[in-house]
Amino acid sequence: MSAVRRVISVLVENESSVLSRISGLFAGRGYNIETLTVAPIPDSNRSHITIATKGDAKTLEQITKQLHKLVPVYKVIEHNEMVEKEMVLIKFPIEQNLADIQVLCGAYNGGIVNVGEEMIIGMVADEPSRVKHFVEASKRYHPIEVVRGGVVAIER
Amino acid sequence: MKMSGAQMVCEALIAEGVKTVFGYPGGAIMNVYDEIYKQDGFEHILNRHEQASVHAADGYARASGEVGVAMVTSGPGFTNAVTGLATAYMDSIPMVVISGQVPLSLIGTDGFQEIDAIGISRPCTKHNFLVRELSDLPRILKEAFHIARSGRPGPVLVDIPKDITAEIGEFVYPDSVNIPSYSPTLKGNKRQIEKAIEAIVKAKKPLIYIGGGAVLSNASDLVREFAEITKIPAVETLMARGVMGAKNPLLLGMLGMHGNYASNMAMSETDLIISFGARFDDRVTGKLSEFAKYAKVIHIDIDPANIGKLVNVDYPIVGDVSEVLEKFIAKIRGQVNAEAYNDWREVLERYDTLHPQSYEDSNEVIKPQWVIERIGESIGEEAIITSDVGQHQMWAAQHYPFDRPRQWINSGGLGTMGFGFPAALGAKKAFPNKTVINITGDGSILMNIQELVTAAEYKIPVINIILNNHFLGMVRQWQTFFYEERYSETDLSFQPNFKALTEACGGVGYDVTTKEEFDAALKDAIEKDKVAFINVQVARFENVYPMVPANGALYNMMLAPKQIEAKETK
Asked: Which residue, of B176, B374, B420, B451, is most buried by count of CB atoms within 10 Å of its CB?
């Protein structure tokens, strides 16, 4: 069976050990985590965890079922129809061409968010595959640091 | 009512109907022990090691079906309990373990006897709690018991910081629990059940495959009824021994690595597996690609994650085995023609005649299998049998005539040596009027030998029967078969004088080298009503047969040498 990428949303009770329960489950059972993001859901005592993972059909089914078994997990959503976004911040040396970087970020729905004495910071929020392309394209401007934010997704 | 956290713990245990708590005190749990001293709602048994406390609570739970309770202190008290938690977790045993923790203000500072109990126990508990506020304590205890016993049962840890046990607060024990994120599926999908019944009607070689879930769900009577109506033959896993009853003609035996020939062949040739609470463990299936190649699979399990985990399932039914079986039985009468499986049953009978579960007895030396059969003949139904892990465990599972569920208590999933003796103490506390026998080996018994003192002090008269071959027998067997007889670190020739050791701790010991001595020792041990060790010298190089080598196909069994001869002459 071939491995496919899958984004899973997990709605959990917002308690202190819940993230370790989930990351521990993945580590202990040998599941793959590509990215993991977590944030509280406004006006509730729940959090939304988004996990991008990879595995064959059997593994993905197990991941969903094992997540379900955790007591603080309310809901596990495997996305089919979804909007997926990831954010990335890239720091460039000040010597690079500001306008080029502005255009490049613009091409990926982003822009320059900060310019200091020694660096330029560009930000892009887009689909993960496009973020990957953006990171590749940015290489010619000698990025000092790249920080990706992990996938967040919402069902359509 | 106002009281301390420690008092709340005792009140909650009493409210849950707990009669016996197994444990060991220490710094962080002392406030609770102070309250235990003052109350008389439950008895506390002081084991001599925390691991034994948890196994004893586990044995109590397995024998009675109630939630077992153990109590330990923080740090080393807790880490000693981990093997017990993992043992219960792997076999889905309902248990609540309460551990002390350093005061809240010290958590995270590497305080004396501090360890992250929640972090360590996460993968070996069904759920765990760290109590952060006294006002949460009653609710958490209520939830712990509920989670432990509902759905697929399992051990729950409640870790309580010392300052919380000292704090005074209002105690109201909740009547009910409200955990919106936790609601196990019990009923079983009606439509799936109908489809499964259609499959049963169509099948020519169906096979009932019974697992430990049938025991946990108290489904034994229903399983027997289902088999009786349909006349479909049945196999049991190690965890399900006793569900069908040894005398039941529809029972083929135990399947798996040390399953009997007919059971393993039935599984290899069946065209429809009807699985009641079994989880297709690797010790059952052998090589997966060769497992039950011709079979469709009906899988009834309370844990959806068990379904389709290893074997592809055609008819998944998530639910409690008892509830699902009731629906099956209500519908299946009149639909299945029991005579349709006559040919299939005859084939299986022939397999059993060809290679029965047997051994070659001897008059020179005691065969371990003979000891098991002898216990069965002498006490049979009356006894509760616990075991440790190894050859003796497999011989007990193969040869003891188990008549009812919860009569056979062993660590199947984790395979914990040292489980049997403390588990026997737990079982005996649950059923003081039953004879409780721990069938053990000379390797395993030393792993919780200190419980001799516990058993003697509290007058818990369990009988340990050591099948002593001066070997770590099962590992030695693998070394014989697969490691060219290099007996690396398995020779246990140097060992204590078990009789003297027992007597030094206040028990009664017997050294047995002949069958007559064994009969006399067993009779005497039962009459003496004291903790006993019967040290039986058995044939040193006896192997457990049949054996399916790890990851071999289930139908490729190594048979006992004599059985091979019989096969060749046929």
From this structure: B420
